[in-house]
Amino acid sequence: MLSNDAHVARLTRDALIVAKRENLSTVACALIASNCTNTHIVPVPVDRGFESLTRPIDIDLDLYLDIFHDREPSVVDLDEIMHEIPTTSAFAASYGWTVFMSTHRTPNLNTLVTTFPRSGLIAGPVYGSFIVVKSSQSGAAVDVVEGDLSIVKDVLVDRALVVIARAKAAFRSSPPIPKANFVFNMSEMLSCILQYCDHSTVMSISRLNRHGRLHAQSEIRLRVRLLLLPFVPKAAFASFMDMLNDTGAVIMGSVARHLFTINSIFIEDLKSLSFLSTFLLAVVPYAVMTGAHRELYTSCADLNLAVPPGRHYACIAWFTEHGYSSWTALEDRKPISGLAHVANSYTCGHKDIAQSKY
C-alpha cells in the first residue's frame, strides 16, 4: 500500500486528523513499509471500545496497512495477520511486541527489511508492509521510541517473518465464504446472532476485527448487566463497572459461572436428559446432573466479589449507597472453600428485597 517516505508523512498527518476528529488517543508504532528507505515511528489511532487498557489489537491499522480490500471491513482472523512476542522473550527487553502485516493480494517488494542486521537469514524476498506495536507487561500498548528500533528489527527478522509468511500463504489459499461479509457487516444481524452464541463463540468473533470486537464486547456487557440485575440497579450498572475498575475487584462465584454457561450446548442438553437422570444415576453414578445440579450453573443466589487488600471499604461504600445497609463480618466460616488459602477476610452485605423494585 505504501510506496515511499513522503507517503508515510502524509499518512501520519491523516492519522492525527482522524484521531482528533473521532476523539481517539494515539500510540507510536514502528512502520516498516515497502519501498521506504527508513523505519518510521508513526502515530496510530486507538479505539479501545469498553477496555480501559490500550491493547495492541485495538489500534486502527487501516491508514497504514492494506488489510481490508472491500468497501466494508472484511472478516479477517487476527491470528493470520499478527504475531505476538511475549515479554518473556530473550531479546524483548521486558516488553511485549506485536507484529501486524499487510495482506494485499499483490504486495510490493519490501526492500527495507533487507537492510536490517542479519537479514541474510531470511530465505527469499519479503513482501508487504509491517507495523510493530510495543506493549508493557500489563498488556497495554506503549509508545515506540528511537532506542527501540534495533529491537524492532530483531523482532521482525528473528521471530516474525517465518510465522508471517506461513500465515500469508494460508490467508491467500483460504476461499472466501459467500455472503459472509454481508452478514458480518450488518450490525443488527450480527448483534441478533450473537444473542444465541455461547461464550467461546462470542470470544472468537471478538478476534476477527475491530467491528467484531466491539459487537462482542457489547454482547458480553449486556449479559453481565442482565446477570447483575438482581443485585445491581439497572441505572447503576455503569457506576458499578467503574467501581470494579477503580478497586480492582473481580466478579466470581455463581454469576461468573452463569456467564460462561449462557447458551452452552452442554447445559441446554441437560434439560432433555433430566428424565433419564433417575435411571442413569442408578446405573452409572454421577453420569448425568439432575435438575438441582443444573441450577448450579444457571442461577445466581448471591453476588461474590474478590477485592484486593485495602480496597474492600470502597466496595462496601458503593453497595451501601445502593441499598445494602446491613453488613456482617464472616469470621467463623469461609463461604468459598477454594479461597481458603488466598483470602483472609469475608464480609456479607444484605438488602431489603421486599422494598426493592429490582
From TrEMBL:
Under which name does UniProt file this protein? Uncharacterized protein
Q: What is the lineage of its organism?
A: Eukaryota, Fungi, Dikarya, Basidiomycota, Agaricomycotina
